[in-house]
Amino acid sequence: MYKRPIIHKQFDKKDFNRLRQLVRLAALLHDVGHAPFSHGSEELFPNDLKHEDYSIAIIRSCFSSIIEKYFPDIKVDELTTLLREGYLSAELVFLGKIIDGELDADKLDYLLRDSYYCGVRYGKYDLERILDTITVVPTDGTLSGPAGFWLLGIDSDGIQAVEELIFARYWMFIQVYFHKTRRIYDHYLVSFLKNFLEEEYGGHYPSPDNLDLYLAFDDCTIFEALIKRKDTNIWAQQIYERKHLSEAFVTLPHQTGLDSYLIIKDLIQLFVVKFGQDPIGIYVDDKARKLPTNPFFGMNQQEESEDDEDAKGFASIVVQDKHNPENNRSIFELSLPLQLLSKRKINIVRFYVKRDMKEEAAVWCNEQYACLKQKVKQITERWT
Predict the structure, then answer these.
(1) Where are the chain's structural domains?
(2) Which residue of 143, 168, 172, 351 shows the fewest CB atoms closer than 10 Å?
């Protein structure tokens, strides 16, 4: 990236190398605060904390002396500010976007890695082309952020590579991250962890003020606790014996509008009445709508914070015209597929029952869904 004219003019080689090392450290350390099983148990953090809060605490507690010893020109406060705020100054916004943004290193990495280890092709895209066309774009206040902010963008030759990246992420969400079996085991795991943590710690992980205790939790610790309780804890038993519920009904991936919301809400209520409230016997997974499941992350401007003026407009990837670098445009203007996809959040709801009830539940759910859909249609026609 140093070969890009704007970077070469703004930073000398020494400054650039220092910033590059800062970003490397941020990339290596920004996720050290993850709980066991990564995002799967993040809802068990106290006081609505996120894993980033733990990462910053761990960096200050465990890595400060190492950073000061081996990288004396990098300040720990500078590193934690980059992780917490997302940028150090207007001209360094693009550094934060490398860590957490539309084209960040995490996305470029985990899609290919997850695709490989899951044995699927959905997450593959042209990484080399993106690296060849990625650039830094100063904003003028008319597009994607206040004037003077420097963002990550792409040359106009890279539009198709970014399309491929975003569709790869979309397909991975549909086919892997929201796979029906993965979702039910996420439910079992979080339920077990709640029980396990309630025994000693009030139902949630220790706070960042108690890092020694928090860091004692890892995947192996949880596996050992699960095996130890496989005969006494219902959730541990489900995981240990692979006795998961079966999917009886699933909604369309992209439900929009009040009508769809009311239909699914009523269907969930009827489902619980019909098939009981046994936590081991039925389960409705409606958490997708509460998660960041737009394939763009924060790229849709409508999903940006209304309270943070500086955050507004960092939503869309900026495309720089290779023939006219002063002509910057949103990728949504240049890509119809991405424009359409940006308006569609993944909103899958799954209904699970015991395996011997699957056929009965499937028939019932389909009948009730059709009935509710017809009722909503009649009401809509009556009032329009």
Answers:
(1) 91-178+309-342, 182-290+347-382
(2) 143
**Average per-residue pLDDT for the chain:** 86
Which among 323, 320, 1 is positioned nearest to 155, based on CA atoms?
320
CATH number of 182-290+347-382: 1.20.1250
Residues 83-97: pLDDT tens digits? 988 877 888 888 998
Fold of 91-178+309-342: Hypothetical protein af1432 (1.10.3210)
Smallest CA-to-CA distance from 285 within 192, 171, 187 is with: 187
DSSP string, 272-304: HHHH---TTTEEEE--GGGS--STTTT-SGGGS
Q: In what order do the strands lie in the sheet with 318-320?
A: 134-138, 150-155, 318-320, 328-330
The three-class DSSP label of residue 136 is strand
pTM (2 decimals)? 0.85
